[in-house]
Design goal:
Length: 93
């Protein structure tokens, strides 16, 4: 599915306002304190203050930069699917 122009515009706006950087820091700190969490658990743990799409986007950016790594998976009770667990690079179990 192609990315819509509105999604591209929202992405650029978030990048320009340094919102994405602040979200990355919050997510990285959360994973550091709670190793082996899923993206959904991060969102819940941050009191739903970051939208799920943003949590996924920032987590993927942190994975691509090498700050986070995925290690193992577990069953998500909310979705009924397996989810990958996130760790700070070098801290994985």
């Amino acid at each position: 599915m192609p990315v819509r122009n509105t999604s591209k515009a929202a992405f650029l706006e978030i990048q320009e306002d340094n919102i994405a950087a602040a979200q990355r820091i919050r997510i990285l700190n959360y994973v550091r304190k709670h190793p082996g969490v899923s993206r959904r658990e991060i969102r819940t743990g941050l009191n739903l203050s970051i939208e799920m799409g943003s949590v996924c986007g920032r987590a993927n950016e942190l994975l691509n930069s090498g700050a986070l790594v995925e290690g193992g998976c577990k069953h998500c009770q909310q979705t009924g699917r397996s989810v990958n667990l996130l760790f700070v690079a070098g801290d994985e179990a």
